[in-house]
């Protein structure tokens, strides 16, 4: 039986933990992330005769590593490479929530957007065209209410197919000013030369241009651990000031 890994990402108060509890029931456990004081919640569930491990990432508004929670969520998506990253959005406040989804889509192609709290959206008279949003984002978008247990099967069916590699995606990527795009184009080949294509080169280039020293530390730590296991990797020596 195959086992796939899912990362559950989202802003605080989007019903992410409600969805996690619904999927895993009693098949969950908690602990701390290695070297962190942040709680790690992990669980298992079965769908379509397939076993899944799902990790409930800390609720964050961004993945820019401005806090330990953001760093933990970012590093899991980048380094653990889950088969699917499920981004949970509050259907009543898509503008505020969409920022995180766009950041995740810069980091991985394997994204499913879950519009949760649809029951609350309906009470407020909010109508959402999920097909149009999916077309614009270039990735599946599913409407659910974890609290009312609606839309869950459809969501899991999409997650299942994506985990198996049957859902092609073309995630929307932000286009920045001409000056920033030129700097990305200049920096990306240097980043790729140092770390290869194992990580999202464009996203890492953006983080370096923003002066994010923590991503360098995380890359160094990851690559050194991999070097000890398999050999063949050098230290990352890219500087954020390049």
Task: Characterise this structure.
The protein is α/β, with parallel strands linked by helices and 242 residues long. It is built from nine helices and seven strands, in the order βαβββαβαβααβαααα. A seven-stranded mixed β-sheet has the order 2-3-4-1-5-6-7, sandwiched between helices. A hairpin with a 2-residue loop joins strand 3 and strand 4 (50-56). The longest helix has 18 residues, at 178-195. It is globular, with a radius of gyration of 18 Å. 35% of the residues are buried. The mean pLDDT is 90.
- Assess the beta-strand content as a share of residues: 15-25%
Structural class call reads: alpha/beta
Largest sheet: 7 strands, mixed
Question: How large is the radius of gyration?
Answer: 18 Å
Count of DSSP strands: 7
Distance between the termini: 46 Å
Q: Enumerate the strands of the largest sheet in spatial order, edge to edge or round the barrel.
A: 2-3-4-1-5-6-7
What letter string, H or E per element, gives the SSE order?
Answer: EHEEEHEHEHHEHHHH
As a percent range, the share of helical residues equals 40-55%
Principal-axes geometry comes out as globular
Mean pLDDT: 90
Counting DSSP H or I runs of 4 or more residues, the number of helices is: 9
Instruction: List unreliable stretches of 5+ residues.
Output: none
